[in-house]
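Tutorial handout. Part one gives the primary structure; part two gives the three-dimensional structure as C-alpha cells.
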Amino acid sequence: MRAKGIQSREAVGFVVALSFTCLAATRDVYLGGLFQRISPSAVALVAFGACTVILLPVALASYDDAFGILRRQANALFWVNVTSAVGWLSFLGSLRLIEPCLVQILYFGVGPLSVVWIDRHVFRTMAPVALTRVERPIFIGLLVSLVFTGVVAVKGLSGMGTQPVDRSMLGVILAIAGGVAMSVSTMQCRKLNDSGVRPAVLFALRYPLTMLAAGILAFLSPAGMSGAPPWVSAVMAIAVLLILVTSYINQVAISLASPLTVRVVMASAPVIIFLLQTIEGRLSPSAYSLAAAMLYGVFAILAGLARQRAILTTKTGAMKQDLDPSSPGRPLSADHDRGDNQSERFDLISVSDTDRGKDAARIPGRSGRGTTIPL
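Part two.
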C-alpha cells in the first residue's frame, strides 16, 4: 500500500510539474512581449506589492512568533530580500532584452553550476555528495550549452534578430546574475526554514525589498511610468497572476514529486517556450535558439539522472556500513539520516528555481521528502 501511495503521489507530482512548466513557459512568452510596451519594474511593483501587502499582515496576525522571527532572523531575512530582489528584477529585465527561450536556459542552467561554488565560498560548506566522475563531463556539457546560448543571443542569431551588442550582452548578464542570485536566495530560505521559520511567514517577509526596488526603478524610469497601464487592468492582472500563481504551483509540484522528476520536466521548458514563441508570432523562429534549447535539455536531464544516481549510491554505501557490525568507528545511523537529508537538500537546491517562482525550501519536522515553499 505504501509503495502504491508513493507511486500515486509521484504521478500527481509529475502532472503538476508539467503544468507548472507549461504555465511558466506561457508566463515568459507573455511577459517577453508585454515588456516591449511596459516597464518590467511596473509589473514587479504590482505583483510583489500585492504579495507583500496581502500576505504580510496575514502572517503577522496568524503566527504568534512572527515578530520574534523578525527580531531573531533580521540579518538573514535582509539578505533573503536582497537576493530575491536581484534575482527577480534581473530575470524580468532580461525578458525585455533577449529571447525568452534563451533567458530560461541561462537563468535556470546557471543554478546547478553555481551551487557548488556558492556552498563552498559563500556559506563555507561542502556538498554532502561530491561531484562524481560521471557528473563532471556532464556539467562541462551544460556549461557549453550556456556559452552557446549566450553566443546565439549576442550574435543576433536568436528570434530577436540583430540588435545592439550592448543590449544583448546586458540581457545575458541579467539572466545569469538573476539565476545565481536566486540560487543564493533559495539556499538562504532553506536555512531559515530549517531553523523553524514557517513557510507562510517566510514567503510574506521575502519580497518587501523587491517591491521597494521595483517602485524606485519604476519612478526613476519616465518611460516605464508613462508606458504603464492603469494599476487595475486586464493586462496587469494577467501578468501578476502568471508571476504569483506559477510560484504556488511550483510549491505543489516539488512537494509531491521527487527532485529528479521536477528537474527532468523543467528541462523541457526552453523547447516549450520556443513552440509558444512560434505560435505567438512576435519572434521569428530561429534554428539556433531551438538547438540551444535541445542541447541544454539533454545535458539538464543527464545532470539530474547522474545526481540522483550519486545520491542513491551514497545512501546505499552508508546503509551497508550501518549494517556491517565489523565496520570501524561508532555507529553511523544518526549521521546517515542527517546525510540523507543533506543529500536531498543539495539536489533540491540544484533545481533552483524560479523563481522566478521556481526555487523551494525544506520544512523540518516532516517525514519523507518534506514540504517545500516557493522561492
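Part three, for discussion. Residues 329-375 have pLDDT under 50 and may be disordered. The first strand starts at residue 360 and ends at 363.
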